[in-house]
What does this fold into?
Amino acid sequence: MKRHQFVRSLLAAACAASLLQALPAHAQNYPTHPVKIIVPFAVGGPADVFARALAQRLPDILGQAFVVDNKPGAGAVIGTDMVAKSPPDGYTLLLMSNTHTVNETLLSNKPYDLLRDFVPVAPINYSDLVLVAHPSVPINNVRELIKAAKEKPGKLTYASSGTGTPYHMAGELFKSMSGTSILHIPYRGSSGARTDVLGGQVNLMFDAVTTMTEHIKAGKVKAIGTSGKHRSSVLPDVLTIDESGLKGYEATIWLGLMAPKGTPPEVVNRLNAAVSKIVSDRELQQNWARQGAVPLVMNPQAFDKYVQDDIQKWAKVIHTANIKAD
It folds into this structure.
């Protein structure tokens, strides 16, 4: 080997070694400037609210500002794709929900793949839904609903905020597990769906517990069951659908953070530790309980499996019900 080639090889090896040594140090110092959290949903929704709750507390732990940037549109695809195309350095994060795990099967032409283009960072929380019926519907519990739906297939109707949304998928999971036929009436957002259920134009709806609680207490709708594994802190007297007879039923709205694939594991672990510390705070948990939200704590590996399992769960429902994107 010629002398200049030998020297060049030594320099290349030295540079590579210095980069490898610098990575943990870089991660240890992370972040050195503000971090952006892209929320691919509208301002004011659950994803936005809890993203801002995190963004307010993360600087106390990590020493830099965390800025929420809402980029809604195309069923969360626009904002998500922006993060997928961002540098994998930990300075652009995605606030994701189970809308993303549904979209993996429902939207075959989206420009990214969740498991290929992202790395799970940390879960945040989950919130139960509540299945309600208009008072004019002669149904008071899950068993009566299943019986009525089987006696008159397709006669009962349920509203949702649109195809592929958590409210829709909760209804399709119910139908799949109970072997019933209930007609889906999709709306462009939850407000219109809720209005028509309250008005009696549609029989049933899965909705956020916090949103529907006031209407349940006012007698404007009847609570048929909540959607989580455990009873809701907001509606503790309402049976879960699982304990009402449809064993294994669970359909919540959950939130988490992801980063572009290739983000250094040390950065991912640092973010995971910070988020886990925040959602484990007792005062915050009590505040979230009043909103019907339950904190989730997992390491990145456990959260990765959680995401994969959720993709498979909803893929089965979508294929069984032959659901197509609007």
